[in-house]
Structures are given as C-alpha cells and as structure tokens.
Design a protein that fits this description.
This protein is of the alpha/beta class. 45% of the residues lie in helices and 16% in strands. Helix 1 runs antiparallel to helix 2 and helix 2 crosses helix 6. The longest helix is centred in the C-terminal third of the chain and has 29 residues. The protein contains six helices and five strands.
C-alpha cells in the first residue's frame, strides 16, 4: 500500500486547518483483500467494507479532534533550527515513504458547488477532489503529464468499477436480507 492523504478539518481549534487522515489501515487492506478474493461471499465483503468504513470514520474523527500524528510531526520537523541535526525518525526511509502522498484527496460536500479542483502534490501521484451529494459522487482527478505515465481517465475508470462492485455487494445483501424476512 502507498501513502494516501485525506484532509481532516481541525477548524474547531484556533487557527486550525487540517490534519492528515491516512486512509490505509489494517481494515481497509482487509477490505481490499476480501473484494479481490474469488471465494468471498457478498456478506463477507460487506462485513469487510463496514469494518473499513467504521475504522476510517473513527480515525477521521480523531484527526479532527487533534489526535492525529502528522501535524505534530510536521511541527517538530519545522521547529528544527538551520543546521540542526534531524532526529532519526525524519531520516528513516519509512517516514519518507509514508509522507510521499501518491494519492492526495480533499472533499467538499455540498449541493451548491458545481465544480472545484484539487491537484496532485507529488509528480508521481494523483490529486482527487470529491463531492458527495444526495444522489451522486462527483470526482475531479488530476495528475501531471510526465515520465510516470499516470492517467486520470484510468483512475476514474477503476474508481467507478470499484464503486459499482461495492454497490452490487450492498444490494445483494439487502435483497437476501429482505427475502429472508417472513412475509405476513
């Protein structure tokens, strides 16, 4: 998995802006694995989806409450004086890799915005702005045209494919549940 950034608002704090809400979690990886498993039932896939959503919602709430880690680490990094040796955490390859945002996202959900954008933050990454409405999800996908060969249309295709598959799983489980209920 690669580093993924989602903005979590921290406006409840004086001068608050955002915290990094990392979307990759143990639950989101398990969700992806279940959706790729040919033998996984719709119920198993739905349970994995629900667990991933619950974990992400919990973490997003924590980030908005100032309980994320990235802004704290940024503050520590920015507090270094010129020429001061960086602490080992900032020299670690895992820290560098986990701060290279291959997917950087931002959401603005409103029925009143017709369009807006959000750009990639690294040359080999995507920027995805999304709006969630009552009856639609609107995406704006950006990527630089460069040697990395990223293609916004391809990413849009795969997002639509994944959303369609998730919808089918949810509907199949709802239909099965409805059929199992006794009819009067």
């Amino acid at each position: 998995s690669r580093a993924t950034y989602e903005a979590a608002a921290t406006r409840a704090f004086a001068h608050g802006r955002t915290e990094t809400c990392r979307s990759v979690s143990t639950e989101s990886v398990a969700f992806c694995e279940q959706f790729e498993a040919a033998t996984a039932s719709a119920e198993t896939k739905l349970a994995a989806l629900q667990a991933a959503v619950k974990a992400h919602s919990t973490y997003a709430k924590m980030c908005s409450e100032g309980k994320g880690v990235d802004r704290h680490l940024l503050g520590l990094r920015l507090s270094l004086r010129p020429g001061e040796e960086k602490p080992k955490i900032f020299q670690d390859a895992a820290y560098t890799e986990s701060s290279h945002w291959y997917l950087s996202t931002s959401q603005l959900s409103s029925e009143h915005f017709e369009g807006w954008g959000f750009s990639e933050v690294v040359p080999d990454g995507y920027g995805v702005a999304y709006t969630i409405r009552k009856d639609a999800v609107i995406l704006h996908i950006a990527a630089m045209k460069n040697e990395f060969g990223l293609n916004s249309d391809h990413l849009a295709h795969y997002i639509k494919e994944a959303a369609t598959e998730m919808r089918a799983v949810v509907l199949a489980c709802k239909l099965k549940e409805a059929a199992a209920k006794p009819k009067l």
